[in-house]
Amino acid sequence: MALPPERVSVGVGHEEGQGLNKWEGYVNWRNKPAMRDQHGGMLAASFVLVVEILENLAFLANASNLVLYLSKFMHYSPSSSANIVTNFMGTAFLLAVLGGFLSDAFFTTYRLYLTSAAIEFMGLLTLTVQAHTPSLKPPICASASTEIRCEKVNRQKAAMLFTGLYLVALGVGGIKGSLPPHGAEQFDDTTPQGRKQRSSFFNYYVFSLSCGALIAVTFVVWIEDNKGWQWGFGVATAAILASIPVFLLGSPIYRTKIPAGSPITTIFKVLIAAVCNNCKSKSPSNAVMGMETSPSSYITETGEEGNATEVKVPSQTLTEDLEFLNKAVTEKTVSPMLQCTVKQVEEVKVVLKIIPVFMCTIMLNCCLAQLSTFSIQQAATMNTKIGSLKVPPASLPVFPVIFVMLIAPTYNHVVIPFARKVTKTEMGITHLQRIGTGLILSIIAMAVAAIVEMKRKKVAIESGLLNSAEPLPITFLWIALQYLFLGSADLFTLAGMMDFFFTEAPKSMRSLATSLSWASLSMGYYFSSVLISVVNNITSIFRNTPWLSGSNLNHYHLERFYWLMCILSSLNFFHYLFWANRYKYRTESTAD
């Protein structure tokens, strides 16, 4: 039976209203269309911020003090312990790229977080069991003397240690690759208000990282040093387990981006098509054809060039940047599988243009790697008392953490609004300006670190404690200076990178692009290990002992290593300026 006309119009209006209320390309946790009035927003993102506190607590509780656990209880040398920690953390952050790829291509960020948290839980549980069971660790050294070599962990026990560590690394990688984009996707980037809230989210994401780190480097490190490592690992295990129900509490209001297939496939398809078509057009027989197949500014809905009988719609025009890739758009390709649209080519251009910025941040993260390795070992040789309170060396990061927790809200609520008024722009301070500020602070930090190490060694020589394991008569607060500068650099650079990569990347590649922030950290940690090895190999040629070798840190030439990093950081900054001055923001390109 036909409905009356008025009822038909009401039904159509209701359907149109529902269509307008839907978030296109997003679903809720039940895989049903996400609604604008029910899903997303700052409340949904706030669950992500709380979860990040717990997750970073679990990760940094052990990573910040791991170098001492490896040297004191697993009996690795200081340089070996430093390399193990940098490789572990480097792998964890590099696996964030895998997490970002899986989020964009196959899984939702929602499901990937839950899976990754379960994996990290299993890794921490393995480490807890090993730390609790004496038979799974090497025997305790009979003497604290540096002249007696302790028995290093054997193969079976080392296998358990590294299994636990790299399960944690796999879980952390999945979480870092899925959680930040999951929070950022809760905001509407088509409105100025949504974009401002997203920028605030990234600032508070770094704030949440610092909150978790504060608990990790104070409470948990104190437990590890005074109650035992099994309790420290246990707290970390409980924290990651607690993060799962907290994350699930936000399920009814999350909006989750629908995976759009492999972004890496698109990138390779455009690159291969561009190479093939450029080679094809260079041959004389194809010269005329190359002119005929130049892309037009109009395409049909199927991505093919329009003809007289087809309805044409305006398309995104090819830009002159990276003109080599424009050849990927043509009627006659080598293979139908290599048929590319203008949109795909322009998206790949964006990805390629942000790669140099990514590469320039690796050196800064190489400097940050020193915070969890040599800086802690330096502090362990110094007087760690503040009055009657003895502070564990691994709690040194508390200084930059507190500083970040103070400056992050100030930056978001004072500096940015003021900058917006002065510059009359939406961002106020651009992403690249933030990253550049962080690079400058890292240069200062390495110079300070070198000067402090020279002072520390001078005290060791003057007090006759160069070959002693006794604490030096110099306060460990001197080391806090380099932590302060590097912590500030991390605040500016990490939040700037995440916002930059997420904002500039195509929508189908946002998780993968955001994970480049963590990949930069990873490359920094790996580069630190490589740099230490290269420095030792080169210096051993001219000296009997390398700069960074042996069990006694007082015999290291750490100050020379820090000066080297200061010089490399300065050269890297000029390299960054070259690319930053030539970068054109995606929004500017669109407006032009």
Automatic annotation (TrEMBL):
<comment type="similarity">
    <text>Belongs to the major facilitator superfamily. Proton-dependent oligopeptide transporter (POT/PTR) (TC 2.A.17) family.</text>
</comment>
<dbReference type="InterPro" id="IPR036259">
    <property type="entry name" value="MFS_trans_sf"/>
</dbReference>
<keyword id="KW-0812">Transmembrane</keyword>
<dbReference type="Pfam" id="PF00854">
    <property type="entry name" value="PTR2"/>
</dbReference>
<feature type="transmembrane region" description="Helical">
    <location>
        <begin position="350"/>
        <end position="374"/>
    </location>
</feature>
<dbReference type="GO" id="GO:0016020">
    <property type="term" value="C:membrane"/>
</dbReference>
<feature type="transmembrane region" description="Helical">
    <location>
        <begin position="40"/>
        <end position="61"/>
    </location>
</feature>
<feature type="transmembrane region" description="Helical">
    <location>
        <begin position="394"/>
        <end position="414"/>
    </location>
</feature>
<feature type="transmembrane region" description="Helical">
    <location>
        <begin position="435"/>
        <end position="454"/>
    </location>
</feature>
<dbReference type="InterPro" id="IPR000109">
    <property type="entry name" value="POT_fam"/>
</dbReference>
<feature type="transmembrane region" description="Helical">
    <location>
        <begin position="229"/>
        <end position="249"/>
    </location>
</feature>
<feature type="transmembrane region" description="Helical">
    <location>
        <begin position="81"/>
        <end position="102"/>
    </location>
</feature>
<feature type="transmembrane region" description="Helical">
    <location>
        <begin position="523"/>
        <end position="541"/>
    </location>
</feature>
<feature type="transmembrane region" description="Helical">
    <location>
        <begin position="474"/>
        <end position="502"/>
    </location>
</feature>
<keyword id="KW-0472">Membrane</keyword>
<feature type="transmembrane region" description="Helical">
    <location>
        <begin position="561"/>
        <end position="579"/>
    </location>
</feature>
<feature type="transmembrane region" description="Helical">
    <location>
        <begin position="202"/>
        <end position="223"/>
    </location>
</feature>
<dbReference type="GO" id="GO:0022857">
    <property type="term" value="F:transmembrane transporter activity"/>
</dbReference>
<keyword id="KW-1133">Transmembrane helix</keyword>
<protein>
    <recommendedName>
        <fullName>Nitrate transporter</fullName>
    </recommendedName>
</protein>
